Amino acid sequence: MARARVTLADIAARVGVSPKTVSNVVNDSGWVGAEVREKVLVAIEELGYRPNLAARQLRRGSSGVLALALPTLAEPYFAELASVFVDVAHDRNLTVLVSQTGGDRAREVEALDGVRLPAIDGLIMSPLGLEAVDVQERRRDISLVLVGEHGERVAGDGEHHVGIDNVAAAAAATAELIAQGCRRIATIGVQDEGPTETSRDRFDGYALALRQAGLPLDEALTGHVHEFNRAEGAVAVQRLVESGAEFDGLLCFNDSLALGALYALGVRGLSVPEQVRVMGFDDIADGRYSMPPFSTVAPGREALANRVLDIIAAPDATAPGHHEVPFSLVLR
Question: Where are the coiled-coil regions (predicted)?
Answer without folding.
Answer: none
